[in-house]
User: Fold these one by one.
Assistant:
Number 1:
Amino acid sequence: MKIIVIGTGFVGLPHAAVCAEYGHEVYAYDKDQDKIAAYCSGDPKRIEHYVAEPGLSAVIKETMNRYLFFTDTLEDIIEGTDAIFLCLPTPPNHNGSTDLSYYRSALHTLAPLLANRQDQRRVVVINKSTVPIGTGRLLESILREHNVPNVGIASNPEFLPEGEAVEKSRRPDRVVVGADSEEDFRILRRIYSQFYNHVRIKYIETTPETAEAIKYVANTLLLTYISFWNGVGARLAESFPNVSMEDLKRGVTADSRISTWGSYVSNGAGGSCFGKDIQSLIHQFKSVGQPADLLQSVYDINEYQKSYLLDRAVRECGVNFNQKSVALLGLSFKKQTNDMRDSSALRVVEGLLGRGVREIRAYDPMALSEARRWFDPAKNHLYEKVHYFESPKEAIATSDMLFISTDWEEFRGLSRTIEQCAPPPYLIIDGRRMIPDYAELVERGYTYLAVGSPTLRRHK
Ligand SMILES: NC(=O)c1ccc[n+]([C@@H]2O[C@H](COP(=O)([O-])OP(=O)(O)OC[C@H]3O[C@@H](n4cnc5c(N)ncnc54)[C@H](O)[C@@H]3O)[C@@H](O)[C@H]2O)c1
């Protein structure tokens, strides 16, 4: 099949690469010329500057110029196309609704080209972005306005978690396709022939509106699990003596009806999707006169979670952050990615700067160059206080306290580094419960304040 992917970010690039790996002829188009130049170079460093996903550069190297082609112009690639995937940003507006301006802009470029194509074979325009219920119809009306012949629309939402984009594009849990006609379903089945009739992968065909709704319900349910454990499990274990977070989790999730996914506790869930999708669904509920109290609570609990540990440090340990040096480990919103969008670390940095710290000594295995863009001193002079280090050891050395914000596996072995570089008394604020042997550190005189535990310090 000849496929065009419009938008080559976190979703579009892995999707294009894996479609090419499965032998389709794929044209990946983006209006960002620097991005396209970086991808065309094939240089893993330049590719990862934009999308750092395990295995992605290798698939691109394997397929580029044979099955996968990058371009910053659409004009020359339209003829003979079977399917066009839209992988465009859908950020939130101030009121939580979804900003569809990227969408409209891309469609106003695409529709006239489709209208004027020479060959009039069937082409399906497929929404892969997360879009409000009914956006497929908007797409349809724009195509109709431009008199595009022999065209169908479909919704094929993306569920991949960042950090596993290639793996999950190769082997998704499910493929959801919403379309109106058998002809369009057939085109999608050919594109996804490796998944259709797969014994494990669920291939679900439905209406475009249901497909759009499935994405929102799935994402907000995942955030609900996370917020339930943060808002109930963590609160319990922090407030009632001798409630063990780990035992609580094991005991509750031993029930086969209860999901183990999401049973970890953390300083909030970030990333480009959870926050914006739940805000959008709240807005969609309100627009049809439905109460959205449950969704609003889930959103509020998650936001609270991103900053409450600093307040706890003040309340429970009497910490005065003024002029302190704080080591901050983990900047990306989760492990295995350099993506910092809506990362809890952003709130931690703002919270620390707002409390007058002298410096933040930041380390992240993948997100340091991304962080330099987020914390650009030209935007806010306080960001001059953020300093970057190449290892946890260097970040911790000379600091007064430590904050762990991302669940990178390498942080699990931190206790030795802490002992070597930062003698007690020293405060460890652990937003991810990454130090399994914290009791030994406490025994040696460290203060340990973690999500899901009361503050722990040695009894005098
Ligand atoms: N990031 C995720 O993990 C994830 C997972 C599932 C679904 N989604 C959804 O997928 C969609 C895309 O997300 P993303 O993270 O890939 O976004 P992104 O910002 O990483 O990528 C979007 C790309 O679209 C390009 N673009 C914008 N306007 C364009 C235009 N008019 N023409 C051509 N290219 C244009 C941008 O330059 C950018 O490269 C969103 O709706 C998001 O909610 C994201």
Note: The CA atoms of residues 90 and 249 lie 35 Å apart.
Number 2:
Amino acid sequence: MSSISLMGAFALQMAPAIAQPMGPWLDEAMPMNVEEPVRKIGVCPKTYLAGGVQLQPAPELYWIWQPDQAWGRPEMIEVLTRAAEEMAWLMPEADPIVVGDISTRYGGFLEGHKSHRAGVDADIGLYWGEGRMHLGGFRDVHPKNLDLEANWLLIRSLLETGLVERILLDQRLIRVLKRYTIESGELTVEEAERVFPIGYNRMWTHPAVVHHAPSHKEHMHVRTFCWAGT
Ligand SMILES: [Zn+2]
């Protein structure tokens, strides 16, 4: 993998993502309307979830923290299942991904979160040590203990779905991940600048990149696009 697919490949990635689910478990997790053409991107209800899909158990791929808070839009379910399958293939020795809150069945306010109301936000765990996840719940990961390779592969897998608008993570963790991608040759400096914008900026108009957010030392927050517009 010499370079990462960013917005230029977004449209190209959409079609296969919709037409070719990656495994039988994904078929089950997929909602009815996935074969509909893309109508809108970036237009979603913000305060509720309609037509939500519950992330189905797949313990070899991911662990669901609270199933009744693991409802998301179809795009979110696809992102999580595809990224988890990719990780299982790339790093079979690593722990399954821990999936925290997405949304409740019909969305709306979710205790402890500003967002997570519309099925487009999910919290997922960070790898520490060598491919380990804190399985009992999220815990702070010091930059020194961050599994750089595993977390980078997870971020890459998420971005490659073409359905991720942004990922939020603490700046100290972003900094070591960014350095890793450059030093390991995973990304060129230019690519790394696009994936991990400098500093504390919150230019959320830039899609598919990793941004700083406070209180994200123990998990990453993933926001997906809305492509069905319903
Ligand atoms: Zn979150």
Note: The two ends are 35 Å apart (CA to CA).
Number 3:
Amino acid sequence: MKAIETLEREHRVIEQVASACGVCAEVLRRGAQVPIDVLESIVDFFHQYGDRYHRQAEDALLSLLHERGVPTGACPIVVINYENQKRKTLVDQLSSAVSVYLKSGGVVDETLINTLEALAQFFPDHIWKEDYLLLPMAEKVLSEEYKRSLADSLNLIDSMKGTEARQAAEKCSTAIRHCMKVVSRSEVAHSA
Ligand SMILES: [Fe+2]
Ligand SMILES: [Fe+2]
């Protein structure tokens, strides 16, 4: 698979977890519980898969674009860099809110719900900019030699962090699937 397609495919994995954040927020807003392991696996996913894996790959792409003369102070790079900071803030916020939820024995506060909602809204928009602006631009700007260099960087990142990242993604999607089953069973019980 080509390096740019790899980044695009990773976005599909992140989108699924972002959408699960929205469902968790909805469940909590209705006053129902979300198992702590689901929330912890979401935080772990954003750290392992988002920060340490996908983000590193994206950094490799951004530095190659910079080498090719794409200005860092102009659109879309400036927006994407700004949003990456915002993403980090939201993930840190989620991590603290989940710790509070755990320590309180499941008492839900607004910060947890608001942060889950913010993440569910943030990712589709951010990923759209990358899929439709950043990656198509990279496809045009990078020569075959640069694309090979990107592929080498991605392979290196994958060899160092890929296994852990995929395990975090798998664990997270298993926890989410389990949670969805519980939620839909309780909805059926409520409507009966
Ligand atoms: Fe991305
Ligand atoms: Fe990004």
Note: The mean pLDDT is 92.
Number 4:
Amino acid sequence: MFKQGGVILTLLGIIFRRPAALVGAIMFALLFPILLLSVFIDLQGGIENPYFSLFIYLILGPLSILALVLLAVGLIRVNRQGLGEHYTYEFFKEQLTNPEQSRRIRRLVYNATFFISLFLLFLGVVAYSGHSFTDSSRFCGTFCHTVMEPEYVTFKNSPHSQVSCVACHIEQNAQGVTKAKFTGMKQLYATFFNTYERPLQTPLQSLRPTRQICEQCHRPEKFHGHKLTFIDTFLPDEDNSHMQTTMLLKIGSGGYQGHAPHGIHWHISEQHQLYYQATDAKQQKIIRVELKEADGTSTIYHKQGVTAAERATEYMMDCLDCHNRPTHIFLAPDAALDKKIHAGRIPAELPYIKQQALAAISRPYADAESARLQIARQLRQWYDSHYPELSAAQGPLLEKAISGAQQAYSENVFPEMNIHWQSSYQSYIGHQNDTGCFRCHNGTLVSDDGKVISRDCDLCHVILAENVPAKSITEMMQSIPR
Ligand code: HEC
Ligand code: HEC
Ligand code: HEC
Ligand code: HEC
Ligand code: HEC
């Protein structure tokens, strides 16, 4: 007799005879209900904890699949060992010609198909949710908390805080996603066994060439003209005097629809490509630059005084050679405080707050918590001894300043990852410490016919006023006739 119940019993009998199948079946029976319940809770958004999601999608999910694989392997091995002799072609032919039996078999096939489809659908949901979860900024930024904290904190404070990590870090195609999951496993391993570098190393070659990534959202070939820029700073005097630098930045364009490429975004035109050779991994020491025009001609600039024998690696210039810190922006202590004072997080009315906060946050601290406590203690002590009347009457002002200074520190310094004030990640967008643009625009890269990559101060910006009291710029703006 070919009964449904009979089949299940036979199956159970086989499972009990094969250790692999038995282990698989027990694992599955235990794990599957938990998986089902957890996925249900997660899809409802019940628990907002990355470890919970990780537990479901990277542990429970794969273990359930492993259980099924064990089960299948056990069964297949049985089949090889003689089961095939029982369920032969003749056997099925005989069963199917009997109408009563074939009705039963059909029902069995329908039921099995229904349950298997339901199960596959469920697996699809688990796999998809697992994929989305491991792609989320929350997972990337918080799962390996200490390791990613610097990047996550700077990301959240950046103009890209609404862009997901994967939009920049992972090429959006099957190849990119697969590669990312594999490197992700490697990183998980490095985190687990504590073998990662502190700080993490850049440049990340996997991000290059970046034009496709950034140009999903930005089209610099369509930029044009100059941009009026203000830089607000505060002096370390009693009044925390507000100063400003104002300039026109020659943003320019990569050239489009008949417009010639010009200004700062001239570098990334369709009409030419720039290559450079650097002798160090950080790509700071540039000894050769080649400008290749679309018509095949090229201009080569050599660093003067460098022998041809020096080993160098060639790179194609793209967005990241200037925008290497579009998101993970680590500021110097001075600039970090200027931002906080300008935003009102640190009250400028508090005498000498710029000077004192700068002294407090610039010291080296062992960890984030002791930095927090000591910054507060130092500022309180200083105001107690120098402005006793103030710290009593205007306590809230001082408390606000303390919290602003602590933030300036904690948004830029991560002692656990060995990231101290700007020592690790420098921005190339200007020419701080003679890097950035000045890696090439330093007057020492010269072509055979004597052309120099210029460091003329008016090449990239027109400085309208430099470090003047902010009031005078406000007055200047107000005096412009409308
Ligand atoms: C707007 C694009 C963008 C976004 C969004 C972004 N990154 Fe980055 N990330 C970069 C660039 C550019 C670099 C530096 C690349 C270089 O110089 O090689 C970088 C570098 C890193 C590094 C290497 C260490 C370092 O600071 O240089 C890590 C780790 C990192 N990002 C993690 C993240 C995480 C986690 C998120 C989301 C919370 C994220 N990134 C979001 C563009 C982005
Ligand atoms: C998924 C879309 C997206 C991607 C990809 C992206 N950006 Fe952005 N970018 C934005 C948004 C949104 C803003 C904020 C615009 C605003 O605030 O006006 C922004 C702002 C900027 C700014 C202006 C920052 C400022 O201070 O005003 C720069 C520069 C920039 N992005 C460069 C880059 C670079 C370089 C890349 C590639 C590594 C990149 N972006 C990738 C969406 C994106
Ligand atoms: C030669 C250096 C350089 C290259 C290459 C470069 N940029 Fe810029 N870009 C700048 C500078 C300098 C600014 C203005 C400073 C700022 O906004 O911080 C700027 C400004 C921007 C802005 C803000 C524009 C605005 O009006 O506020 C965006 C967006 C941007 N770049 C995107 C890109 C993208 C995308 C690429 C690559 C396709 C790219 N840039 C290549 C130097 C460069
Ligand atoms: C890898 C080398 C390199 C780097 C880095 C670089 N440039 Fe250039 N830049 C060049 C070369 C080469 C030229 C063309 C010089 C010439 O035509 O003689 C150029 C030309 C320019 C021009 C003139 C474009 C025109 O209108 O013809 C501007 C403006 C400019 N760069 C701005 C910048 C800024 C701003 C930065 C930094 C954010 C920067 N460059 C970084 C190589 C570089
Ligand atoms: C190759 C392009 C380029 C050249 C050449 C250049 N600059 Fe700049 N400069 C920049 C860019 C880009 C910035 C950054 C703007 C920003 O912060 O967004 C900048 C910023 C500045 C600032 C404001 C920075 C601050 O934080 O106070 C000053 C001042 C300045 N430049 C002066 C000069 C002087 C003086 C020269 C001539 C020796 C010069 N620059 C040559 C591109 C250039």
Note: The chain has a mean pLDDT of 88.
